[in-house]
Every structure is written in C-alpha cells, then in structure tokens.
TrEMBL record, chain A:
<keyword id="KW-0479">Metal-binding</keyword>
<dbReference type="InterPro" id="IPR004232">
    <property type="entry name" value="CN_Hdrtase_a/SCN_Hdrlase_g"/>
</dbReference>
<keyword id="KW-0456">Lyase</keyword>
<dbReference type="InterPro" id="IPR018141">
    <property type="entry name" value="Nitrile_hydratase_asu"/>
</dbReference>
<dbReference type="Pfam" id="PF02979">
    <property type="entry name" value="NHase_alpha"/>
</dbReference>
<comment type="similarity">
    <text>Belongs to the nitrile hydratase subunit alpha family.</text>
</comment>
<protein>
    <recommendedName>
        <fullName>nitrile hydratase</fullName>
        <ecNumber>4.2.1.84</ecNumber>
    </recommendedName>
</protein>
<feature type="domain" description="Nitrile hydratase alpha/Thiocyanate hydrolase gamma">
    <location>
        <begin position="15"/>
        <end position="196"/>
    </location>
</feature>
<dbReference type="InterPro" id="IPR023900">
    <property type="entry name" value="CN_Hdrtase_asu/SCN_Hdrlase_gsu"/>
</dbReference>
TrEMBL record, chain B:
<protein>
    <submittedName>
        <fullName>Nitrile hydratase subunit beta</fullName>
        <ecNumber>4.2.1.84</ecNumber>
    </submittedName>
</protein>
<keyword id="KW-0547">Nucleotide-binding</keyword>
<dbReference type="Pfam" id="PF21006">
    <property type="entry name" value="NHase_beta_N"/>
</dbReference>
<dbReference type="GO" id="GO:0005524">
    <property type="term" value="F:ATP binding"/>
</dbReference>
<keyword id="KW-0067">ATP-binding</keyword>
<dbReference type="InterPro" id="IPR042262">
    <property type="entry name" value="CN_hydtase_beta_C"/>
</dbReference>
<feature type="domain" description="Nitrile hydratase beta subunit-like N-terminal">
    <location>
        <begin position="1"/>
        <end position="102"/>
    </location>
</feature>
<dbReference type="GO" id="GO:0018822">
    <property type="term" value="F:nitrile hydratase activity"/>
</dbReference>
<dbReference type="InterPro" id="IPR049054">
    <property type="entry name" value="CN_hydtase_beta-like_N"/>
</dbReference>
Length: 201, 104
C-alpha cells in the first residue's frame, strides 16, 4: 500500500508541475492573464455556489406565482434572481412531489448548473455515480442515506452541455410562515441534485 | 461516440465516495487548471463540444485512473497543441526548467 500511495503522490506532483508549465507558457505567449485566473477562482470559491440555488428554491416555496414561472421557464425565472450565465444557459427545474422524486446525473461528463449550484463535488464527476445513477437509482440514493417509499416514482435526468437541471425539493413540514431567508437555510446542495432532502427546522 | 466517458449503465465502478464539507478545489493546480480552462475557452481555443471530445481521447485506463481536472488538462493541452499555441515539446522543456529552478 505504501508504494502505491507514493506512486500516486508522485503522479500528482507531476500533474501539478505540468499545469504550472502550461500556465507559464500561456502567460508568456500572452494567451492567459494570471490575475484573471485568480479572479475566476475567487468567484467560484467564494461567490457562486449552492446558496444561489437555495434562494431560488426558497422563493418558489414562498411565492406560488414564482413557482409557476420557475417550472414553466426555469431559465427566465432563475435569471430574475440574477443567477444566469456560463454553464447555466438553459435551465429546467424538476419538481419533487409526494409521488415523484427527481435526481440529476451527467453520465458523460460533469454537466452541472454552475450559476445556481457552483462547481460540482467530486462524487458527481466520478465514475461510480455517473455509471450507476441511471440503472440503480435506489441503490445510489441508499448510499446517500436516502430511502424513498416503494411506490414513489424516481425520474433520473441526464444533463448535457446545453441543458442543466435543478431539482425543486419538497418543502419540509413545519415551515409554514417562515421567511424566504429562513427557508433558504433548509435547502441543501444535495436536495437540489436529488440525492437528499431539504432539512427540517 | 462510444468511449469510456459514456459510462451510464456500467457495472463494477465501485462505491460512491462522498467527502464531507468538500472544498471547491483540492489543490492549487486544480485552481490554475480551472481558470485556464475558462480563459482558453473564452479565448476561442475550443468550444464545449471540442473540449469534451478532447477528454474522451484519453486512453480508457488513464481516464479511469486520473483525477477530474487531469481530464481537463488532457483536453486543454491537446487543443493548444492542435492550434499551434503550445507544443508538447515546449511543455516538457518548461517542466524541466521549473523543476531545476525549484530544486536549486
């Protein structure tokens, strides 16, 4: 095991070195501005993430008219809150109900709605989830600690380069009268991918 | 295209590994790779379909055995070599330079 681990660390450091070399060449040739990389990293590390999607969900829970707009034209309704752009150009919102549970995968790669959820977690991009979500969704959900009633229909949606999905989770019980801000705190990233539920207060 | 990337429905690829409180990036090179992808895309070196095609050109065993952003690195270097911006020889030479400088 020790040798395997060392090999892997060696491989990682070669990859890091290669990335450094590529960046240095692209900068030297005027093709990439390192300060622009810093800005992009900061944006996706600190500003764009699942809190955006949580605000969309909370608004849909609190405002029936917004919910209608969101389910009819996800792209436009999400844009109302300012969350549009790269890797979220076309959005479809999938409504979880007492009889239907939706979950999202990208079997071919890692397509994910960046403006509402940020960058995807590693498990979403890795082979086990991508391969199995479409043939054994209940088994996959069990690995996330999620069990659905036997009669509940599961719909699995395979995202692609042009179209991205956001799950609208069911509103938890006991949240009547809560403000949108408080509701947003209950919305987890996993609930918007469909591998979890919203938290209960 | 029927490549290793088309993995929907495959068996035997193991359990899902969820990392609690996962950071957005796991290493500095991932940050740099992410930023370079966006800038090279914005600079017209490839479009999204070309980029995915580039990842699908990885040998299957390498694809399965590598980290996510290594797929991106593979595609980025394939396209900047294809359009003549940066050659593989330049990358290898620069790696050697950096390595020697950092060892000094």
């Amino acid at each position: 095991m020790g040798a395997v681990h060392e090999d892997h660390n060696h491989h990682r450091s070669r990859v890091a070195l290669r990335v450094k070399a590529v960046e240095s060449l692209l900068v030297e040739k005027g093709l990439v501005d390192p300060a622009a990389i810093d800005k992009l990293v900061d944006l996706y590390e600190n500003k764009i993430g699942p809190r955006n999607g949580a605000r969309v969900v909370a608004k849909a829970w609190a405002d029936p008219e917004y919910r209608k707009r969101l389910l009819k034209d996800g792209t436009a309704a999400i844009r109302e809150l300012g969350y549009s752009g790269v890797q979220g150009e076309e959005m479809v919102v999938l409504e979880n109900t007492p009889t239907v549970h939706n979950m999202v995968v990208c079997t071919l790669c890692s397509c994910y709605p960046w403006p509402t959820l940020g960058l995807p977690p590693n498990w979403y991009k890795a082979a086990p989830y991508r391969s199995r979500a479409v043939i054994d969704p209940r088994g996959v959900l069990a690995e996330f600690g999620v069990t659905l009633p036997d009669g509940k229909e599961i719909r699995v949606w395979d995202a692609n380069a042009e179209l991205r999905y956001l799950v609208l989770p069911e509103r938890p019980e006991g949240t009547e009268g809560m403000s949108e801000e408080a509701l947003a705190e209950l919305v987890t990233r996993d609930s918007m991918i469909g591998v979890g539920f919203a938290k209960t207060p | 295209m029927n490549s290793i990337a088309d993995m929907g429905g495959m068996h035997g690829l193991g359990p899902i590994r969820v990392e609690e409180n996962e950071p957005v990036f796991h290493a500095e090179w991932e940050r740099r790779m992410f930023g370079m992808f966006i800038l090279a895309f914005a600079g017209g070196h490839f479009n999204v379909d070309m980029f995915r095609y580039g990842m699908e050109q990885m040998p299957p065993a390498e694809y399965l055995g590598s980290d996510y952003y290594e797929h991106w690195l593979h595609s980025l270097t394939m396209w900047i070599a294809a359009n003549g911006s940066v050659t593989e020889e330049e990358i290898l030479a620069r790696m050697k330079e950096i390595e020697e400088r950092e060892a000094a």
